[in-house]
Amino acid sequence: MSGFTSFAERIDAQKIRARSASFFDHFSQATLFFNSQSQPERNHIINALRFELGKVETPHIRERMLFLLSQVDKTLANRVAEGLGAKIPTKLDKPMNMSVPASSGRRFQATSRSMCLAVCRRRLAYQASPLSVGIGAEL
To answer: Where does residue 39 rank: exposed (0-12), middle (13-18), buried (19+ CB within 10 A)?
Structure first.
């Protein structure tokens, strides 16, 4: 037997395999996490984001991160943008997911101080260091 097989049961409908709408909700859990923090913890997150995004040399990346933060919480994005002296874009020029599939085996090398910030359904986390990370690696 190879692959997934459906359980043989009698039903009065058709089984379909499709992604639910909630699969495409990338920000609600990050929003819940941020809103669950105390004010000092929120300030710490904001200051950390200001510090790390301030080190990013490419303005386009900084703007993209501000846009993503605005999807999590408008106040968070506004305070980070204020600290950077930047504006939050209202839309992205390119689709949000431009990644190479994790199974491709390709790697990238960041040559300067880099910041990798994941705002996703499961967590809001940051990691700052010179990186050599396989695309699709766990943060």
So the answer is: exposed
Residue 38 has what DSSP assignment? -
Residue 46 lies in a domain: yes
Which amino acid is located at 31 in the chain? T
Residue 35 is encoded by which pair of tokens?
Answer: 């809103």
What's residue 7's pLDDT?
Answer: 77
CA distance 85 to 117: 19
Question: Does residue 48 belong to any structural domain of this protein?
Answer: yes
- For 64-101, write each residue's pLDDT tens digit: 999 999 999 999 999 999 999 999 999 888 776 655 55
pLDDT in tens, 27-37: 999 999 999 99
Q: Is the CB of residue 119 less than 8 Å from the CB of residue 72?
A: yes
| Residue-number span of the structural domain to which 77 is assigned | 26-92+112-128
pTM: predicted TM-score of the whole model, two decimal places: 0.58
CATH number at residue 83: 1.20.1370.20
Residues in the chain: 139
Kindly state the tokens that stand for 67. Answer: 């846009």
